[in-house]
Design the sequence.
């Protein structure tokens, strides 16, 4: 049996799944296509229910070993690349891509493919954790796909990518890309400094930071580059704390 290390490093992340039949079906298609890391964020159903196990068939171990976490940032720990799926069109400054064009990008480094809730998808805050966005093209007469169908299409596309003989089709961008924890720590540091110098205001900081995060996410910074950026922030903080009083501000006698 061929070992496919690219697929073993990819997390399939389901945010608040509510249907045990969907979860079981997803476990089965993951095993069909050689994926093994299933992460459930605050699941609203029992992954070990009879309905889920019945749909999983011979993929029971994926249900049993699925990681259950409380939040999406927790699910993305250690990930260098994050793609979010979207079933509806909303206003985003970043283009939506098809599975065919986007998913090969996930095949190098620790990656995650995030799927939203069955009824309302992902929130804006959750979307801001992703670097790229995928939407499955479907017929306009009835474009809606259910969760298990969406995961099946993407898992197949990921598996198909590993069968490509032309390795240049797979993006092998540096394996030292910054993880989500490193990026989020940088964003917190940046927001704190921008609030301190008055560039951000508390009541609008969240929306302004969304734009900055999207800018950095499109750049795919490496861990050394984020360390450099944090060094700049730290130096600015030091300069502020140690700046000399302006000339003429002290009383001359």
Sequence:
């Amino acid at each position: 049996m061929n070992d496919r290390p690219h697929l073993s490093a990819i997390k399939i992340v389901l945010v608040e799944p509510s249907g045990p039949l969907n979860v079981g079906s997803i476990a089965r298609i993951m095993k069909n296509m050689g994926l093994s890391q299933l992460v459930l964020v605050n699941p609203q159903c029992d992954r070990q229910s009879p309905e889920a196990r019945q749909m999983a068939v011979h993929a029971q171990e994926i249900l049993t070993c699925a990681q259950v976490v409380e939040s999406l940032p927790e699910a993305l720990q250690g990930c260098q690349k994050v793609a979010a799926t979207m079933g509806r069109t909303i206003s985003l400054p970043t283009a939506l891509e098809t599975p065919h064009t986007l998913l090969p990008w996930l095949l190098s480094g620790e990656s995650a493919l995030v799927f939203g809730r069955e009824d309302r998808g992902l929130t804006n805050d959750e979307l801001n954790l992703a670097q790229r966005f995928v939407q499955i093209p479907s017929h306009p007469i009835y474009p809606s796909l259910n969760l298990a169908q969406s995961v099946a299409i993407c898992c197949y596309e990921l598996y198909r990518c590993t069968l490509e003989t032309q390795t240049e089709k797979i993006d092998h961008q540096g394996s030292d890309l910054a993880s989500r924890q490193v990026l989020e720590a940088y964003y917190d540091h940046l927001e704190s400094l921008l609030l301190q110098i008055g560039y951000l205001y508390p009541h609008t900081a969240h929306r302004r930071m969304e734009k900055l995060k999207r800018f950095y996410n499109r750049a795919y910074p490496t861990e050394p580059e984020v360390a450099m950026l944090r060094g700049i922030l730290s130096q600015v903080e030091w300069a502020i704390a140690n700046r000399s009083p302006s000339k003429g501000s002290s009383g001359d006698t």
The CA atoms of residues 81 and 111 lie 5 Å apart. The chain is about 45% helix and 10% strand. The two ends are 87 Å apart (CA to CA). Confidence is low (pLDDT under 50) at residues 165-172, 248-253.
